Amino acid sequence: MSKGTAMASKQTANKPSETGEHAERLSNLVSNVPADIDHETGLKLFRDMTLGRRFEDKCAEMYYRGKMFGFVHLYNGQEAVSSGVIGAMKLKHDWFCSTYRDHVHALSAGVPAREVMSELFGKETGCSKGRGGSMHLFSKEHHLLGGYAFIGEGIPVALGAAFTSRYKRDALGDSKSDSVTAAFFGDGTCNNGQFFECLNMAQLWKLPILFVVENNKWAIGMAHDRATSDPEIWRKADAFGMKGEEVDGMDVLSVRGAAERAIKRARAGEGPTLLECLTYRYRGHSLADPDELRAEQEKEFWAKRDPLKTLEKDLLEKQLVNIEELREIEKQIDEEVKDAVEFALESKEPDPTELTKYIWAD
Amino acid sequence: MAGTLLFNALREAIDEEMARDSHVCVFGEDVGQYGGSYKVTKDLYEKYGELRVLDTPIAENSFTGMAVGAAMTGLRPIVEGMNMGFLLLAFNQISNNMGMLRYTSGGNFTIPTVVRGPGGVGRQLGAEHSQRLEAYFHAVPGIKIVACSTPTNAKGLMKAAIRDNNPVLFFEHVLLYNLSEELPKGDYVCALDQADLVSEGKDLTIITYSRMRHHCIKAVQLLKDEGIDAELIDLISLKPFDMETITRSIKKTHRVIVVEECMKTGGIGAELIALITEKCFDELDARPVRLSSQDIPTPYNGNLENLTIIQPHQIVDMSQKIVRQGL
User: Fold this and answer.
1) What is the pTM of this model?
2) I want to staple A361 with a disulfide (CB 3.0 to 4.6 A). Which of A192, B105, B110, B200 is the partner?
3) What CATH number should be reported for the domain whose range is A59-344?
């Protein structure tokens, strides 16, 4: 593809002090048709993104206070993707598949903050009964297929859920079977075989699935441009005859617009979409990451594009909401997060006599 | 009397279960139009259509993972490994997601899947097509492992595996597909967790599975001519072991040999003998012995291949030593 000639220079070193091509792409998007929303949806999106942000901030606090353990990967900065995509889908009908960075996808899918926080505390009241932890959140009730901690392994699972949807419609004759599956993963995953294998099968069988790339530019310490021959991931859809779209992943209305188009195609039996969301994580890869490679200038560029502030500005400019409504939502979210922590703290540890429970199904 | 070949017994099982439950489906390479590399799904494509008998691209890890997702959302997929060795490429999905996901999810999801296909050492197929993967998968939590050995148990076990709500790794042996036997009439299933007491004896217990069952049957006959009365147990279930049947036998014979096709190091016999030593130590009058394949890749040359796996005369020799000399 067209970027091939620049490969040699890209593979030399992580460039400091440049906002870089990832940032430049935002101002050169091929198309950008944001969603048209009403008052209620505006508040819903603001609420979901605020919950995502403040829940994660609380996780950092609890981690540093020694209340949660292991590897904890926070979603700060990427909220527009989760809220934009999942917010455009039907909860408890469509399916969602996540990665190790899964807290906010779970919240957007409707898993109560109490259950997510309890899981992070390892408690019996957690959505995975304390057996999963931060990277393995599951909820059958909320159609959360799970957080998958190895790169790429969730994509085939998501493909299976999309296959079931088509199977029920075309092999079992259930004309109402129109669920769509959203598989979330990062830029690093797009160099893994399961990504390409599943794009092929999804398009081959016209499965109702959205491949949602949260391109935050960094796979831990590996800059995207150093890891891939063509950094424009959405263009890889072309190789499969699939619809691909790139979108400003810091703008929830843009993400929602693209998601709505993709969901419509999927429900109509027109097959999958590869949706590349250009985004950025505001914290390190995990809370254990010293985050030494990302340049300050790069961080500042993305900090100015905070998806929460962008949505607030949009909603106020369009006069869809008033500022008091937004501040009130923030107060409610703070209460909800506080309540989740109290619930998790008060919840019981798993019963040691149930150590081996859940290994076998009846 | 017309017998049924083992591969057709498996085919009958899959056909009957697909007719019984419309959520049962098959994924794999060449399972549809081609009918399966060993014809275990022959003509099912015509009968059930291309979605229920799905020809997949050659992408083992991804179509196995797809089966996990399909099972989590209500289907009951059977995954065919064209050769079980190819499933090394699906090890991650089998271990992380089939095996562990029910537990990790705190019981949110069940994964009713069967992963089946031809395994074992064939005839001069070379190392990669003559693998003994049962030991590789043995430590994975949350999967049941079964090895069929006759047309009758192949059919009954396959039906039970499809109906089971857990992931089942189902080993068929490439050299047993053409065994013929008259099958029981009607709908029958065999328990996935029960060993088969093939023949009773009092002098020693021989425990085996899969194709080695037939080597052991030969050995038991030869031993009878020598005046040694051996009891033969076919494990059927490689995980979990049916320790009740095994313990009962050892309490009677006080001597045990494990005969296996897998490699000695980290093999099925290694685990089984450790368990026997833990549970039956005081019952043993002789050291428990493993007769296993060599710890080498299966060689192509026919003579070397025969030397790699256990032969009936080795079972006879070792049995005589144990019974006569109390080794």
Assistant:
1) 0.95
2) B110
3) 3.40.50.970
